[in-house]
Amino acid sequence: EPDDASAAAAYDMVVVSNRLPVDYVAGPGGATRWKSSPGGLVTALEPVMRAADGAWIGWAGVADREFAPFEHDGISIIPVPLSEQELEEYYEGFSNDTLWPLYHDVIAPPSFHREWWESYVRVNRRFADAAADAASEGAVVWVQDYQLQLVPRMLREARPDLVIGFFNHIPFPAYGIYSQLPWRRQVIDGLLGADVIGFQRAADAGNFGRAVRRLFGYPTRGSVIDVPEADGETRHVVARHFPISIDAASFEELARRPDVQARAKEIRHSLGDPEIVMLGVDRLDYTKGIRHRLKAFGELLRDGRLGVEEVTLVQVASPSRERVETYRQLRDEIELMVGRLNGDYSTLGHQAIAYLHHGYPREEMVALYLAADVMLVTALRDGMNLVAKEYVACRFDNDGVLLLSEFTGASDELRQAVLVNPHDIEGLKDSMIEAVRMPQRERARRMRSLRKRVRDNDVANWSATFLETLTGVGKIDPGVPDG
Ligand code: GDG
Which of 386, 390, 454, 457 to mutate to test the pocket of ligand 1 (most atoms within 8 A of CB)? Predict the structure, then answer.
């Protein structure tokens, strides 16, 4: 039960995620400043939180520092501290070197370490405690992503009055892969503390349901799982897909700005005005299929099916998880490939690949989207992939071709993209050529249909659908006997 002190600062809507939507920047003279940070989840939830006047619980991005709660841009921010060791074990270790590769179909081998798991449990407990303190009686708490899978159960035990949602932003793997996890029962049990468990794709929810049946034998009917509780009651937990999206209107608004359009022209000009600009935008991550993309592009140049006078590939690889060894190796491999391809095929006037290991402001990203004739999304596994949706949202000119991997959640919705299997290098090459040569009428037809899809399911729709499901469950369930 909340005591008087916490009741005074109680919020009816609480979001819990590993990272806060703000970055800490050391100001002049030791002053503390906060700056909104870009990224998939922040982009998705910021508008919702501002409207709901809620609190956001998460880590501020610097280890070994404690910060008092504060307001930022109309959102109450409640920082949770992490020590340097917890950063290594809970975050870089268990979250990004165990769960991330495991949940992305073991594209890279996951590491299993018992100390990492213990740290994961400890940190999840700290986040759950912070949420229990911040939430008002009967509040809605929405827990985000794979770093915090134990929080729903911990929170339910402390605060049975709460309505608890969980959304998994990354895939949920098939049981044959999931079952490798030494703590597979604890993680599922942690998630089942929620009232609603959201996934990106129907296939992810299906994999989760199968894991529940295999490990616990709980009955499932469609998206409802019957979870027996210690008091003999049965809770009905909903596990289904809620495909995440973007704030499509705000991307289009940026794309329509004259300065952003001028910048798009300038980008093409500075590339030597090639006929075709191809673009990749990814965090530098082994799930994104950057190597497959470069290999296919390199072979097209080698075979003379594309020439550097005609085509330039712009690859933005934003720095990510740079202290994790797999990511360092990946960076070396990609930069070796880019260096070789440019060495082999660039001329003084035309670069084969413009490779950028930087993060950019949103305006620059949008200018890049506008400058690109072909957008390459070749992920080997991706929960959704927001870049694909952002590209489409920006193309109010109904032009541009989206080449999209079947292994992204986005491919379930964006059926009018040029769909590819990135493992099939020959197929990928043919699809790149198809995209480059696609007649204008067909480009327009496909883009119109893609744009309609992204407009119809934007991020406001995503969060509204999730929260309606969640509060619907919360209203119906308490006190209603099973059956
Ligand atoms: C996870 C899941 C799921 C990237 N570089 C810059 C920049 N970005 C922005 C993009 C986009 C976001 O970051 C990346 O989102 P993605 O969906 O593409 O991928 P993940 O980061 O892996 O996100 C993913 C997502 O969560 C949401 O549920 O779709 O499957 O893996 O918005 O534009 N933004 C700016 N500068 C950059 O350099 N401003």
Answer: 386
Q: How far is the CA of 385 from the centre of ligand 1 (A)?
A: 7
Q: Which helix (H) or strand (E) holds 283?
A: strand 276-283
Q: CA-CA distance, 72 to 36, in Å (whole number)?
A: 8
Distances (CA, A) of 70 to 62, 78, 101, 226, 423: 16, 7, 35, 40, 47
**Exposure of 30 by Cβ count < 10 A (0-12 exposed, 13-18 middle, 19+ buried)?**
exposed
Ligand 1 atom having least distance to the Cα of 200: 28
Atom of ligand 1 nearest to the CA of 43: 32
pLDDT tens digits, one per residue of 368-388: 999 999 999 999 999 999 999
Q: Which of 338, 419, 356, 429 is nearest to 385 (CA)?
A: 419
**For residues 343, 319, 106 and 100, what is the CA-based torsion angle, rounded to 10 degrees?**
180
> Per the structure block, which two tokens stand in for 162?
């709460």
pLDDT for residue 276 is more than 60: yes
Nearest CA to ligand 1 atom 15: 40
Ligand 1 atom 33: residue of nearest CA: 387
Residues within 6 Å of ligand 1 by CB? 38-41, 43, 169-170, 244, 281, 283, 318, 359-362, 365, 382-387, 390
Tokens encoding 165:
């949602």
Pair 200, 171: CB distance under 8 Å: yes
Query: Tens of pLDDT along 413-441?
Result: 999 999 999 999 999 999 999 999 999 99
Q: How far is the CA of 26 from the centre of ligand 1 (A)?
A: 25
d(CA 398, CA 415): 16
Nearest-CA residue for atom 9 of ligand 1 = 39
Interaxial angle between packed helices 258-270 and 248-256, expressed in degrees from 0 to 180 and rounded to the nearest 10: 70
